[in-house]
Amino acid sequence: MTNSSDQQLASTEASVESIHQAINQLLNELAPSLSKKSELMASDPISRVHHCIDLVKTEASLAASLIADCAPQGRPMLAQAQQTLKSLESLQLLGHAAMKIN
Q1: pLDDT tens, 82-91?
Q2: 35 CB contacts (<8 Å, ≥6 apart)?
Q3: Three-state DSSP class for 14?
Q4: Spatial distance between the Cα atoms of 97 and 69, rounded to a whole number of angstroms
Q5: Which of 25, 59, 86, 90 is the most buried if burial means most Cβ atoms within 10 Å?
Q6: What share of the chain is helix, strand, coil (3-state, %, to 5)?
Q7: What is the four-CA torsion angle of 38, 88, 101, 39, rounded to 10 degrees?
Q8: Whose CA is closest to 82, among 7, 9, 31?
Q9: How far apart are CA 15 and CA 18, in angstroms?
Q10: What are the residue ranges spanned by the domains of the chain?
């Protein structure tokens, strides 16, 4: 006979599949355009997030080049890339932690 706390733990425990779905959903919410660019990687969302981080780093590099060239669009582009990068790195951290627990 199991006690109720064991039953609650089992019912709230996330499966690998549900973690993957959650990561993919959050990626789509955080960065829809990056999510579209990485759709083929949906079966491996941790790698997908890593790929998106690489894409954002490339965008940030381009933004830095624009800033160096005194292009006005560089600063907002860099700010957006930095915010997206921060969100993606947080998602990556949570994904790794969830997979270790499971």
Answers
A1: 999 999 999 9
A2: 24, 27, 28, 52
A3: coil
A4: 40
A5: 59
A6: 85, 0, 15
A7: -10
A8: 31
A9: 5
A10: 4-101
The torsion angles phi and psi of 98, rounded to 5 degrees, stand at -65, -40
Residue type, position 36, single letter: K
For CA atoms 96, 47, 74, 87, the dihedral sign is negative
Q: Position of tokens 């624009």?
A: 66
pLDDT of residue 99: 85
**15's tokens:** 């499966």
What whole-number distance in Å separates Cα of residue 71 and Cα of residue 80? 16
pTM of the model: 0.82
